[in-house]
Amino acid sequence: MDGLNKSMYDIGSDSAFAILARSQELQKAGNDVINLGIGQPDFPTPSNIVQAAINALKEGHHGYTSSNGILELRKAVADYYFKRNNIEINPNNILITPGGKSIIFYTLLMFGEPNSEIITPDPGFIAYKSMIDYTGAKCVSLPHRMQNDFSFDADELLSLVNERTKLIILNSPANPTGGVVTDVELQKLAEGLLRFPKVFILSDEIYSRILFDDHRHHTLLKYPEIRDRVIVLDGWSKTYSMTGWRLGFGIFPDNIFNFAEKLAINSHSCVNSAAQFAGIEALNGSQESVEQMINTFKSRRDFLVNELNKIPSIECKKPGGAFYVFPRINKNNMSSIEISKYLLEKKFIATVPGSSFGNLGEGFLRISYASNIKNLEKFILCLKEFMNE
Questions:
Q1: Alpha helices per DSSP H over 86-240
Q2: Where are the beta strands (DSSP E) in the chain?
Q3: Peptide bond connecting 353 to the previous residue in cis, omega within 30 degrees of 0
Q4: Which residue, of 238, 257, 284, is where some domain finishes?
Q5: Where is pLDDT greater, at 287 or 2?
Q6: Which of 21-35, 230-244, 270-284 is the least confident region?
Q7: Number of compact structural domains in the chain
Q8: Pick from 243, 269, 284: which residue ends a domain?
Q9: Are residues 193 and 278 located together in one domain of the fold?
Q10: 1 found inside a domain
Q11: How distant is the alpha carbon of residue 118 from its chain centre?
Q12: Which of 31, 85, 122, 257 qualifies as a FRET site for 180, CA 20 to 30 Å off?
């Protein structure tokens, strides 16, 4: 279309939402569709959080707030982060946003430009590459290989850094693989980045509460030598089953916070007032529902990994976190898109093709286990049928 910014043609989209739309079309046509494609918990927002929002509305919190979020919420985030990571955060470095994607968007607008390079996970969350392409920067893939439990190798990452590198994006636990980066690799990365003092890091920690077995979350903010270059993304969507509330936060270093805030002012002004009060209750209130949800996810993960690995020509690693499995499926040289489409159109099971997440995702499917065990059992039966056809 004439007149459009040419960069608009470089923006991708999230295939999980396209698959969701197609799933809904099939449902309206009378089909019983099991959606294992969309990345949202299948639990309701805890009632105490909902009630906090209701109370806020009744108390008259209907207007604009400060663009960076109400102070009470930013203090609650700082306290929450200290309890979990033993790291003190100044509330003035916290930006409350309508979901975590805003932090990705603002960060890439700040760092992405033609002739610059941004390193991003492969396979990795779809929005990273989509927005990197929009900015005109070169997207440099950081392999997260199955044989490495879908983590990265710090030496390999550092070998990708050069004078054009502006930003490194990390995500642990990861979407789409559930891989968890070890403290050993993060330590090596922090030490290695001393050679590249102008490179910033965006650490996407949105799944950091959803960890299993002996896995622990390690934030890059704990390394003082690079702390002034680390941006943290987190939020409420996954941990508190609040995807529709659109509530996230970013922690920005002093030297760039004002730029992020300006982008917020010029795009969304501020976050919904009542949602911010709900966010306070989520962080300060009972965490029992979170622990129950994580335990349920662990049981579902164990079931899926065990059953998938029983099927010939399928191999599945046990993910350390998030709520996805990422099995490799070999079926008559079919691509991941072909397999995903067949499962949706013929078996009425929605999954996301691995190639949506990068070149190294080809041959894999992302399967969300944010669905009840009966649906997962039906999925396994349908997948066995497909593999035997």
A1: 101-111, 126-135, 154-160, 183-192
A2: 34-35, 94-97, 117-122, 138-143, 165-171, 200-204, 230-235, 248-251, 314-315, 324-325, 328-329, 349-350, 352-353, 365-368
A3: no
A4: 284
A5: 287
A6: 21-35
A7: 2
A8: 284
A9: yes
A10: no
A11: 18
A12: 257
Q: Report d(CA 105, CA 126) in Å as an integer.
A: 12
CATH, residue 240: 3.40.640.10
DSSP lists the bridge partners of residue 249 as: 96, 234
Tokens standing for residue 192? 């290695």
What CA–CA distance (Å, rounded) separates 229 from 224? 10
Closest-CA residue to 174 (of 357, 37, 376, 379):
357
Q: Report the pLDDT value the prediction gives residue 9, as an integer from 0 to 100.
A: 83
Q: With bands split at pLDDT 50, 70 and 90, how would you rate the model's confidence at 29? A: very high
Do residues 318 and 253 both lie within one domain? no
Question: In the chain, count of helices (H) and strands (E)?
Answer: 12, 14
How many Å apart are CA 336 and CA 5, to the nearest integer?
32
Residue 110: helix, strand or coil by DSSP? helix
- The residue range of the domain holding 54 is 47-284
Angle at alpha carbon of residue 10, lines to 103 and 160, rounded to 5°:
65
18 and 132 belong to one structural domain: no
Residues 6+ apart with CB under 8 A from 30: none
Same domain, 266 and 321: no
pTM of the full structure: 0.95
% of the chain exceeding 70 in pLDDT: 100
Q: Is the pLDDT of residue 13 over 80?
A: no
* 15 pLDDT more than 80: no
Q: Give the β-pairing of 200-204 and 165-171.
A: parallel
* Kind of pairing between the strands at 365-368 and 352-353: antiparallel
Contact present, 15 and 356 (Cβ < 8 Å): yes
